[in-house]
Amino acid sequence: MINCLVTIGSHDQDFSRLIQYCIDFSHASYEEFRFIYQYGFTDVSNLIFREGDVFFDFADRDCFSKLISSVDCVITHAGIGTINDSIDMGFFPIIVPRLVSKHEHTDPSQLPVCEYFVSIGKAFGFTELPTFHEFEEKIQLAVSLKKDPSIGSWRKIKNLIAQDISYFAGFK
Prior knowledge:
Layout: E1 2-7, H1 16-27, E2 33-38, E3 54-56, H2 61-69, E4 73-76, H3 80-88, E5 94-95, H4 110-119, E6 124-125, H5 132-145, H6 154-163
Parallel strand pairs: 1-2, 1-4, 2-3, 4-5, 5-6
């Protein structure tokens, strides 16, 4: 059983696109996956979660860190805090940025964050959701890369960002 944490952060705009996609994926005969959903402000009252899946709105930082350390894979919005924590804990996160074009965020800041971590080989990223087969392959690969020392720590990532801060110019 592969335990996946899906987290969409605390931004107040709906991000049901990612939650619904993961629910559909889990219902599509992918019995080897179990999902834990942090859905924030997204209205999930009409969504049909698979039996055995866990879902919650928010958790404090300590609880969230314990939760991340108990899963096999992190699937996240492009929030720097979650990416920070997951990489620091040895994960190779799967990033799905919130998009302004889909009314999921008020600014485009999540796109360059996702692109950056993908470009330096520290994460997988999807702006458009992939086929279920491709998603399963990325989850399996992310799990195989978990805790790999070559992933590095957040301290190393912060140094890379400091050296390449121009990448984020215009997204302050």
